[in-house]
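Incident log, structure service

09:12 report received: a user says their structure output differs between two submissions of the same chain.
09:20 pulled the input from the user's history:
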Amino acid sequence: MPEDGSIRVDSEHSENTTETINGVEMVEKREKEGITLVCNDGTYIYLIQGNTDEGLLRNMMMSVIE
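09:34 re-ran on a clean worker, output below:
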């Protein structure tokens, strides 16, 4: 994926927020089934999803993108 690429996530049935952490774009998608975090570091796209504590998922994603 090119560095200037961006993440797009379907939001018809979810609440999505986008933030940048240490220069890495992260999209958080919330649905009744759980939470999905998607990050683009310019080289790879990472996806973590689960029906668990949001803080746990965010910590897992932070350990990947740092």
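09:41 both user submissions now match this output. Likely a transient worker issue. Closing.
09:42 reviewer note: The chain is about 20% helix and 40% strand. The longest strand covers residues 24-31.
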